[in-house]
Amino acid sequence: MEERLKVLVAEDENILRKGLILTTDWKALGMVVIAEADNGIDAQELALKLEPDILVTDIAMPGKDGLELIGVLSDQLPDCECIIISGHAQFSYAQKALSHGVKGYILKPIDPKELAAVLTKAAKEIHSRKQEREKDLELEQLRALSEGFVPGKASLSKDYRDQYIQDAVAIIEQHYAEHLNVGDIAEHMGLSERTLSNLFKERTGYTFLEYLTLYRMRMATAMLQQKERQVGEVALMVGYKDYRYFCKIFKSCFGLTPLEFKKGGR
């Protein structure tokens, strides 16, 4: 289950703050309120300590107003999405808030549906950003691994003895253009997914997915050297329906886009 997003609520009006916290269905939104504050100074200290994903704040607060608070957090917690609730309808406030990257500006009295919509939008951006970072990290790891990768059995360790792994590698080499996952192959062999995964990593030095991806990339380089092959065609031939993702994976491994490689950048 996906971890719930952390929310900090800063509002100096006690009744409004408590009402907002108690009446909003945070669980349904995939969120949890981790702290609350009735002034900007405490809110800043809590935010820097707890690192919330979302800040919901009033503008007019003692000690430090909401815009000052957001200004500080935009520098020190750039991933924190900020939402303003305020009784101030002047455009200048909204304009300044937007300059700090605020994702929502809600006027009091708060409309629960409007608040939920703004929170949902912020959550989507947070999840999207996290997914992109996970992909970038995966691509960096693949690029590092690709530098020492040689497709085929020669890439296996000298201690390679296991028939199961030999069979798994053979399946990759024969069916790399198809949808493959370690679970299906393990089931075909009568093994648990965990057992095959551990054996594969132990014997080859790569996870199943890493090996499959790198093998596909190496096969792609061979195909791209054929003048009649187009990049989109090659992507499909090595198992990628998403052309953009294929290009991203390829560049992460070789430092060139498939088209640059094809044109002789290699």
Automatic annotation (TrEMBL):
Record bears the keyword Cell inner membrane: no
PTM-bearing positions, type 4-aspartylphosphate: 58
Alphabetical list of Pfam families matching this protein: HTH_18 (PF12833), Response_reg (PF00072)
SMART domains linked: HTH_ARAC, REC
One MF annotation (Gene Ontology) recorded for this entry: DNA-binding transcription factor activity
Keywords carried by this UniProt record: DNA-binding, Phosphoprotein, Transcription, Transcription regulation
Protein name according to UniProt: Two component transcriptional regulator, AraC family
Residue ranges of domain HTH araC/xylS-type in the record: 166-264
GO process terms (BP): phosphorelay signal transduction system
SUPFAM superfamilies: CheY-like, Homeodomain-like
Domain Response regulatory, residue spans: 6-123
PROSITE patterns linked: HTH_ARAC_FAMILY_1, HTH_ARAC_FAMILY_2, RESPONSE_REGULATORY
